Every structure is written in C-alpha cells, then in structure tokens.
Amino acid sequence: MPAAAAARPTEAPNCAISRNTPLSCEAAGDWLRDDRDSRSAGEIAISAEQARSGSHSLRLAYEFSGSADDYVIFLAPRAFRIANDRERRFLKVWVLGDGATLNLSAIIEDDEGELWKVYMGEISSTEWQQLDGYIGDMTWPSGVYGNAGNGQVDFPVRLRGLHLDDVTSSFAGPGAVYLDDLTVE
Fold it and tell me: Are 145 and 117 in contact (CB under 8 A)?
C-alpha cells in the first residue's frame, strides 16, 4: 500500500549536504517519478513508517514487471547542493530494504550541467545498512548519465535524483525501500 505524500517544508534553498549536514528526510520536499525515463511504476514520498533518525524517511515504492531491465527514477524538484569541497567525494545514505535485491544509484549534476550516475550499492538487507558511492567513478554502473560534456566531474555538484534498479531482469514484484540521512564525505 503506497504511503500518502506528507506535506513537509523543504530544506532551505542554500542547504548544502555535507558530513555534518545530512539531507534529512524530515524536510526533503516533494520528489517525483521521472515519467520520461523510468521503465517501471513507482512512487516516492516522505514517510513516517520507518526512520533511521528523526521520525521520517523517503519511501521509494516500485513495481517491477520482470519482463526486461526494470528501474524507476525519482527526481528532486530542485537540486540539493553538495558541499563544494573537492575532497568530499563519497555520497553515503542509510537504506532499509524489503528483502528484494536491488541496486541504488544517485544522479548528480555537475557545474557544467553534465549528469552523472553514482552507484551507491546493492540493497539486500531488511535492516538499516549504509551504502556509499564515489562521485566521479567511471566504472559501470557509474558514469556519465546524460548531457555528456567534458567527461570529468566539474565541481560544485548537486543531487538531482535517485535510480532504483532490479539486480536481475527476471525479478518481478512490488515493494518499497526507505532512505534516510544522505551525507557526503
């Protein structure tokens, strides 16, 4: 059963995600499913069903048909700035899985408008687990995602979205995962 979207204030426009300032899911704003590029149904909402810290998390619901490479993409209505220190290259997020084996990636936009997919890792646990991905990794499944430019990450960067993918194309079914406390180090 999909969670109803909760009306919450969004993070301040100048909020910069860093080690000490996580993207708290208490005020993450109203994210949307990317209808153009997603290959599966899905919904994203702030949820009080689960939380690692505070009382809310982002609930990413999906329904994969199993007939092909299923994935769903969620986009933030406005990008979240990532601290523009070139030393901060690792995105970290806490994830609570539902027992299905899924891949999670972040989509970032660099200063030149180039989009990058940052592979965060495999969600396989029904307990909270921390996943991390290296900004600038060119090894598949990370790499240039869109608006190809000079082929290097130009700082500062912004978090634009999330990409939830089935690990095996034959996997079919609905489910939901929860994300909380996204930081960058």
Answer: yes
Interacting residues of 141 by C-beta distance below 8 A, sequence separation 6+: 103, 105, 117, 119, 165
Q: Please, what is the average pLDDT of the chain? A: 82
CA-based diameter of the chain, in Å? 43
HEC-encoded secondary structure of the chain:
CCCCCCCCCCCCCCCEECCCCCECCCCCCCCEECCCCCCCEEEEEEECCCCCCCCCEEEEEEEECCCCCCEEEEEEEEEEEECCCCCCCEEEEEEECCCCCEEEEEEEECCCCCEEEEEEEEECCCCEEEEEEECCCCCCCCEEEECCCCCCCCCCCEEEEEEEEECCCCCCEEEEEEEEEEEEC
Q: Which residue has the tokens 């990409």?
A: 163
CA separation for the pair 8, 128 (Å, rounded): 23
What distance in Å separates the CA atoms of residue 88 and residue 183, rounded to the nearest whole number? Answer: 10
Residue 154 near residue 144, CB atoms below 8 Å: no
Q: What is the pLDDT of residues 47-65, one digit of tens each?
A: 889 988 888 888 999 998 8
The predicted structure's pLDDT at residue 9: 37
